[in-house]
Design brief:
Elements (H helix, E strand, L loop, with lengths): L8 H10 L10 H17 L3 H15 L6 H25 L7 E5 L13 E4 L15 E5 L10 E2 L17
Parallel strand pairs: 2-4
Antiparallel strand pairs: 1-2, 1-3
């Protein structure tokens, strides 16, 4: 059985509109709000990352402040859109929790991974939603009732809760 949750740009945009963003090194509230609006426009219009970066660079130039690096803007884009996707996916599953009672937290298995202790099965309503903290690349797979074997060890809370820095469910 192959089950997919297609999260539309509507869900992503709804989350981005409601969420406030913070960017290290950016203190001006007006500039933060302008960056947020550029991020929303980029998702709405399907702009490339390079187009988004150029627009954000213009915002910094007009504010007379030092631009963010390419990798810093990339991180801001990735973290905010990934968080929006995770929340949108969780919202879709919340309506079908009786069909998807378990979820599997899946960290990337490489030398940069910090969240390997969180790997495993959780009740769908208690799974930590990525991104757990900055530059997190983990994912969540929702498990349909037909896929449950009965051998899953289910965590009620994350086995290493000290790793969780923020919860994307705020505002859900």
């Amino acid at each position: 059985m192959n089950i997919s949750f297609n999260v539309t740009s509507k869900e992503v945009l709804d989350y981005l509109r409601e969420k406030s963003i913070k960017i290290a090194g950016v203190e001006q509230k007006e500039l933060l709000e302008s960056i947020k609006q550029e991020l929303i426009k980029a998702v709405e219009d399907g702009k490339s990352f390079d187009e988004l970066k150029a627009n954000i660079d213009e915002l910094f130039d007009s504010a007379g402040v030092t631009k963010l690096s390419y990798s810093h803007i990339q991180l801001v884009f990735r973290m905010n859109t990934f968080a929006a996707y995770s929340v949108g996916q969780a919202q879709k599953v919340a309506d079908m929790i009786d069909q998807f009672p378990l979820a599997y937290f899946s960290p990337i298995h490489d030398g940069r991974s910090r969240h390997l202790p969180l790997e495993g099965y959780y009740n769908t309503d208690s799974i930590p939603l990525p991104p757990i903290n900055y530059n997190c690349r983990c994912g969540v797979r929702y498990i349909h009732i037909s896929q449950i074997t009965g051998n899953e060890e289910v965590y009620e809370t994350p086995p290493a809760p000290e790793l969780i820095v923020f919860d994307q469910r705020d505002g859900m």
